[in-house]
Design a protein that fits this description.
alpha+beta; Alpha-Beta Plaits; Ribosomal Protein L9, domain 1; three-stranded antiparallel sheet; 3 helices; 9 strands; globular
């Protein structure tokens, strides 16, 4: 899977979208449809809302596919989890891991993930061990 990163800005904040991480939870467009609309191209239009609302909505992204940085800072601001690592299975969906976690692939390579990581529980993801939203397509129950 390609490691694609796309950026969209309203001049004050830049939204960073990594489609390969997206699990299609639809949290973004159900929460701020004027900015996140998958029926439009581009599907992210940050000029359609104010910075505070955009930042609040991006922080709710369960997969980490959406992040942001303030343009004046030039660095990506991350959601910080204050507690230790929390693991939560979602109904008929992925295993959500909140906090710092190291993922080891079959080759022994380590990937560090911070804040929110969605791990596949259905077995159908093309981006294992990460969730890619396949659970919805195959009607995973669990």
């Amino acid at each position: 899977m390609k490691d694609i990163t796309k950026k969209y800005t309203n001049g004050e904040v830049t939204i960073v979208w990594k489609p390969g991480m997206c699990m299609h939870s639809e949290v973004c467009f159900h929460g701020l449809g004027e900015v996140f609309d998958p029926r439009k191209r581009p599907w992210i239009t940050p000029e359609s809302s104010n910075t505070e609302r955009i930042v609040d909505q991006v922080k709710k992204c369960p997969s980490g596919a959406l992040s942001y940085y303030m343009n004046v800072e030039g660095e990506q601001e991350q959601v910080k989890v204050e507690a230790g690592t929390i693991v939560e299975p979602t109904p008929n969906g992925p295993l959500m891991v909140y906090g710092r976690v190291m993922i080891k692939d079959p080759m022994g390579n380590l990937t560090e993930k911070n804040n929110v990581t969605a791990l596949c529980r259905c077995g159908g993801s093309a981006n294992k061990p990460f969730c890619d939203g396949t659970h919805k397509k195959i009607n995973f129950q669990g």
